[in-house]
Amino acid sequence: MTKVSLKDINKIAIPAIIAGIAEPLISLTDIAIIGNVENNSVEALAAVGLVGSFLSAIIWILAQTKTAISALVSQHLGAKRLHAVKTLVPQTIALNFLLSLLIYSVTAFFSEFIFKELFEARGLILEYSKSYYRLRALGFPLTLVTFAIFGVFRGLQNTSWAMKCSLIGGLVNVIFTYVLVYGIDGLFEGLHLKGAAIGSLIAQLTMLIMALFYFFSKTPFHLKISFKPNPQLRPLLLMSLNLFLRTLFLNIAIITSNRLATTYGNVHIATQSILMNIWLFFSFFIDGFANAGNAIGGRLFGQKNFKALWHLSVDISKYSIVIALILIAVCATFYQPIGELFNEDQAVLDLFYNTFWIVLAMQPINALAFVFDGIFKGLGKAVLLRNVLFVATFFGFLPAVFICDAFNLELYGIWIGFFVWMLIRSLSLIFKFRLDYLNRS
To answer: What was the pLDDT predicted at 22?
Structure first.
């Protein structure tokens, strides 16, 4: 085989798109519902946005074992040696579960410090952020175990099971969040932010139950834990560690942006919350093709089929750019209704409309960065990805946003910084892939 067909790519990419947007969709649902409550909607929206961004940041860091297990399963599938990772899968899931409990305990205890010192939250925003986070983050173990199982599915070249889990979980979240936030006349009063957090937890539990069903009924793996470390456990942990560091650098950029936005005032952080969560939604959406690159690229690498790997990179790049352009066209068409969906405060809407175009303009660049990021993950090149994020964050994003801050560009400056950040990431990875694989194809 010298080329992977569009059908085979879409068989993984399209379900992966739907599965990947589950967590950001839960956060966006909370923002859309909370942003329209009658009491303190701006403060509540700011709190949900801060917590949503922080949760996504933590989940991105901890869920890197999902990428590592996916890469190893796909490589062993290509080499026809799946039996070699049978004990690795339950060991990875167990590690994810224990790590999630530790992270929840620490972050819940220091939640006031996190949102006060890292995000500059004060007053009602701080109180809302603490209470919402402590309840919402109970879903850490549910989400991280689910993500590890999703990684196994992807490694087996099947993302449709994860898609079904995410679709049902997203539907459950919309229904329960709306009902619990606003209440039902004559039955019970709405629970405001607490209702949004509980609705999210119910959705995450639903997805985990469904993921376990597919894991036991459709895969060759089990959850019986062997206390003898699998030979691939050390490479998985090293890969995960480097991906942890990579994602840590990524989240330094996100936390810095939210911290700066908070210092500009409530209207700015409320607007930034909307923009950031839309950006995260787009990222997970386009990341579906990166997941295809991860899964298929890992399999082709295991087969040492470098010609097909090169063609895969070209094709997936084209498809992801098309998706990015479609997203831009849809958002440009519904530019005003998108803002009104999340908030009714005119000051927030005005700032949103004046800034949203930057988020849209960077989507094709994002698409290329995500595609090659996914391919290199499938190849197990975690050190390269760590180094690229280090350079992009500390020599691209941070200088750009602080220079823009000095010129009082505020939110414009933050998103100019993200534009520079993504440009460095995409160009670096494309150059490296061409250097390594063009002549081998």
So the answer is: 65
Q: Examine residue 391 and state whether it is found in any structural domain, yes or no.
A: yes
Question: How many Cβ atoms sit within 10 Å of the Cβ of residue 8?
Answer: 15
pLDDT at 29: 73
pLDDT (tens digit, 9 = 90+) per residue, 275-298?
A: 987 887 788 777 777 878 877 888
Residues 324, 364 contacting (CB under 8 angstroms): yes
d(CA 441, CA 438) in angstroms, rounded, equals: 6
Residue 249 lies in a domain: yes
Domain that holds residue 185: 6-437
CA distance 407 to 390: 25
Output the six-digit token pair for 380: 């197990």
CA angle, residues 279, 284, 286, in degrees to nearest 5? 90
The strand pairing partners of 189, in sequence order, are 183
330, 22 Cβ separation under 8 angstroms: no
Q: Are 305 and 165 in contact (CB under 8 A)?
A: no
Residue 12 exposure: Cα atoms within 13 Å on the Cβ side: 29
Residue 344 domain-assigned? yes
Sign, Cα dihedral of 340, 341, 347, 348: negative
- Could you give the 3-state DSSP secondary structure of residue 188? strand
Distance from C-alpha of 145 to C-alpha of 94, rounded to nearest angstrom: 8
What is the total count of domains within the chain? 1
Question: Would you say 297 and 436 are in contact if contact means Cβ atoms under 8 Å apart?
Answer: no
Which amino acid is located at 302 in the chain? G
**In DSSP terms, which residues pair with 188 in a beta bridge?**
184
In this structure, is residue 414 part of a structural domain? Answer: yes
